Each structure stands twice: as C-alpha cells, then as structure tokens.
Amino acid sequence: MTSHPAARPVADLFAADGRLKAIPRKPARREALLAHLAANLFEADRTYSEPQVNDALRSVHDDFPALRRYLVTGGFLSRTRDGADYRRQQQPGSPGGAIPAVA
User: Fold this and answer.
1) Which of 58, 64, 63, 102 has the alpha carbon at shortest distance from 83?
2) Strands (DSSP E) along the chain, which ranges?
3) Model's pTM, two decimal places?
4) Taking Cα atoms as reference points, which of 97, 102, 94, 91 lies closest to residue 39?
5) What string of DSSP letters covers 15-36?
6) Which residues of the chain have pLDDT under 50?
7) Residue 54 DSSP symbol
C-alpha cells in the first residue's frame, strides 16, 4: 500500500448515485479526480463545444465551471483561445490549456 494521495482510488469521492460529493481541496486528490473525469467523460481525438463540456461535467457536479477551469488549467482539457472548442489532452500539462495548433 502506498501513502501517495494521488494513488488512492477516486471512487470514495462519489456518492452512490454517481455524483461527486465535493471537489477535493488537496491538489493531489483533485488531480487524481480530474484525470478520472477526463478519461471517463471525454473521448480522445474528439472536439467538444463548451455546452457539451458543461453538460458532461454537470452530470457529476453542480459546480461545472470550477471543474472545467481545473481541467483546463491542469492540462487535462485544452481549449481554443475563444473558448469555443475543447479537446482531451493525452498527457496533462499543456501550459495555459490552449490548443497549440488552433490557438
């Protein structure tokens, strides 16, 4: 068993109905959650509009703007400068969350 918080499963962050209980405050736990959400809510190689991103995130938590912001700033989702298009990043960490080829 490891003591690294990001290695802990994120299942305990969700209620029985599949909705997120709260957005973790600890960065490592939040990063694990964001990785989980990106992998489970967004397909690779697909472009999403902002309303589609909002709808996907709203399905798990009411504060979807915060989740969207965390996903972009954490590099899990990239977006165009105008915020119209979003894509799942294969590897998080793109600075600023902009899509380099489009931005």
Assistant:
1) 102
2) 47-49, 77-79, 85-88
3) 0.80
4) 91
5) -TTS-BS---SSHHHHHHHHHH
6) 1-6, 94-103
7) H
